[in-house]
Amino acid sequence: MLAGMSIPSTGPAIHVRGLEKSYKDLRVLRGVDLDVAAGSIFALLGANGAGKTTIVRILSTLLRADSGTARVDGFDVATQGAEVRASISLTGQFAAVDQILSGRENLVLVARLRHLREPGAVADGLLARFSLTGAGARRVATYSGGMRRRLDIAMSLIGSPPVIFLDEPTAGLDPEARLEVWQAVRTLAEGGTTVLLTTQYLEEAEHLADRIAILHEGRIIVDGTLAELRRLLPPATVEYVEKQPTLEDVFLAVVGAKGRDRG
Ligand SMILES: Nc1ncnc2c1ncn2[C@@H]1O[C@H](COP(=O)(O)OP(=O)(O)OP(=O)(O)O)[C@@H](O)[C@H]1O
Ligand SMILES: [Mg+2]
């Protein structure tokens, strides 16, 4: 492969090998490997401080890894930062929307900044896609948390980046607002966008993700589909109805087993 050449789109949208990152003595990432298929939803699960945001920051070129490789949409995050940035959008934990403007004005503003033709039409299309048409003319200050997050996700779609990072997209939202955001994320993936999201909610990964990875003590200790993760546990027990293990059962079993390994 020639340096600077992009990998054909048939490869994984995100490809990470041996990623390491320390903050002084704190070894946060100790060799992270992961692959995210194009057009899929990948959930990165981990406790507070596990290093989820650190991975997202490295993949979005905001932070440099100490070692290892990472490619996003075929581009190397270390040597092709501009190409990576053109291929992604990042939605952090706190909505980046302007409260004084209306939802529609926020969208038009970003569409203008990205030099899109017909920013008004782009805005209206996204409002419709995220069920915000009725609220489009209202100031964002009057939106609920769920509406703001949906608008934030809609804004991140302007310019149609093939890869989207959502860092804890539903942190602090009530159950109804979480469902709304989940629907918005599904809409993204149905449109062919690759989504890498981080979450501390096992339930979120369970409902949303095609593939789930658990980050623990600097490494991905489990990576698979929900069905594969469930197979890590003994078979479902039969009571009156068959009870499948939840992802929480799997998480506790795996993390607990790792803890015991080290004595
Ligand atoms: N700039 C920094 N300087 C020093 N330590 C840092 C820095 N950024 C993160 N850390 C530490 O690295 C570890 C991983 O942080 P990170 O934000 O990646 O975790 P996280 O999995 O996203 O956690 P959360 O679920 O709370 O968002 C934490 O212990 C954090 O304190
Ligand atoms: Mg974080």
Could you explain how this protein is built, in words?
By secondary structure, the chain is α/β, with parallel strands linked by helices. It has a single domain (14-261), classed as Rossmann fold (3-Layer(aba) Sandwich), CATH 3.40.50.300. It contains nine helices and twelve strands. The protein has a six-stranded mixed sheet with strand order 6-7-8-3-9-10, with helices on both faces. The chain has a four-stranded antiparallel sheet with strand order 2-1-4-5, covered by helices on one side. A two-stranded antiparallel ribbon has the order 11-12. It is globular, with a radius of gyration of 19 Å. Adenosine-5'-triphosphate is lined by residues 23, 26, 28, 46, 48-54, 200.
List keywords for this structure.
263 residues; alpha/beta; Rossmann fold; six-stranded mixed sheet; four-stranded antiparallel sheet; 35% helix; globular; binds adenosine-5'-triphosphate; binds magnesium ion; ATP-binding; ATP hydrolysis activity
Short description:
Helices cover 35% and strands 25% of the residues. The protein has helices at 52-59, 81-87, 103-113, 119-129, 145-156, 175-190, 202-208, 226-230, 247-261, and strands at 14-23, 26-36, 41-45, 67-72, 75-76, 88-91, 163-167, 194-199, 211-216, 219-224, 237-238, 242-243.
Rounded to the nearest angstrom, the distance between the terminal CA atoms is 44 Å
CATH architecture annotation name:
3-Layer(aba) Sandwich
Order of helices and strands: EEEHEEHEHHHEHEHEEHEEH
Within CATH, the superfamily carries the name P-loop containing nucleotide triphosphate hydrolases
Per DSSP, the total helix count is 9
Class of secondary structure makeup: alpha/beta
Main pleated sheet: 6 strands, mixed
Instruction: Please report which band the strand proportion falls in: under 5%, 5-15%, 15-25%, 25-35%, 35-45% or over 45%.
Output: 15-25%
Give helix % range. Answer: 25-40%
Please report the total strand number as a whole number.
12
